[in-house]
Design goal:
By secondary structure, the protein is α/β, with parallel strands linked by helices. It folds into 2 domains: 352 residues, TIM Barrel; 89 residues, Immunoglobulin-like (Sandwich). The chain contains 14 helices and 18 strands. The strands form 4 sheets. Strands 5-4-3-2-1-10-9-6 form an 8-stranded parallel beta sheet. The longest helix has 20 residues. It is globular. 47% of the residues are buried.
Amino acid sequence: MKFKMSVLVFCCAMSIGAWAQNVHYQPDWSSLNQRPIPQWFDQAKFGIFIHWGIYSVPAFADPHAKAGEAYAEWYWNHMHDRNGPTWAFHLRNYGENFHYQDFAGRFKAKLFDPNQWAELFVDSGAKYVVLTSKHHDGFCLWPCPANWNWNSVDVGPHQDLAGELSRSVVAHGLKMGFYYSLYEWYDPLYLHDLDRYVTDHMIPQMKDLVNRYHPSVLWTDGEWEHPSSFWHSTQFLAWLFNDSPVKDEIVVNDRWGKETRGVDGGFYTSEYGMRHGQQVEYTSVHKWEEDQGIGKSFGYNRMETASDYKTAAQLVHLLVDTVSRGGNLLLDIGPTADGRIPVIMQERLLQIGQWLKVNGEAIYSSRPWRQAEEGDIRYTARDGNVYAIAERWPGSELTLTAPKPTAAATVTLLGSNVQLKWREVDGKMRIEVPQPENDLMASPAGTYVFKLTGVN
């Protein structure tokens, strides 16, 4: 996955101060696109995505599908392909007369512990959380008035899952947000009265989420069948930025109509490095976010094996590469239907957190340096320092071409407070690297950060 940047100053990620608070945004993209992205989002760098719903009961996707297509949360949609693996799985395990809606009664979440989840997220080093409040099947994880008997309070867990998790996440000092699907595959209103679906169902649902929980992120999806004018996106966003209770805090993405990805809205989104099946190359300064699961699916897929999950080293490399190019990483987990986060996902999150405890200063509140990469090295900058992040142990010497040291330059390996010796040879900075302490070498992340001061 390669992302390109031409400018290193993120004017879009500035603080929303008194000036921005006094701006009244008009319901058109030329006005809405002028709103700065709240500074907290660019500083956070790392968030947790959660796909959890009644699709977590069958928890199946084709194990042979490639990443970006093996989505267990698409179970209901995939069932309609009577020649496909999902329908074959459904017939074997549930029978022809068991409908997708019947899974709602089996979605119990009996082991759901929102405080345990929040503690894990804190330990992972994440700074924000985005929960699927409603996926494309229309099932809501909050007591949505517009979805009687198709939400987690009326059926299944009989709990306000969104509210419980939101309170725990915020109490643990993290930002809370919600994913929301604009469309619903089989909602009768959506299928037969599109205008009423938007005005009487979708818009009231989104406003209810915002007014009820005061989220810091609203992450929309399912926009691709219609333009933003059909979804009334600009009118909703004008309300969100002007009059909602989170008008100064809220961050939104770019999925507001089939024409808006990478063009309009808030931060741009890529998914497994792709946008609409095409490789993404970021060439502007606009804030962006990479979104993918630890495995190949967002929702829990019990068909995945250990080999389908990225290693701690791969995940840290993904985070570092994304941040070096000006992005955030929103890393997804898929809890089970009874409310447990699979142990392998917990382990990966804790391993990322262990790495960030040592090296977080190179990630949080950093900005892209004038050069994002040099071979296996990624660069970030913060507070006048440059961080050279090595994807593997460099051996006894690290050679850097990009940094131009002054006579007062110093080098420190994060996790070891010893200043390293260096010399300049043929315009290159050659750093002597002693063997570090065993616990640093034993880190499963296998990524090392060299802090450079006094370099240009």
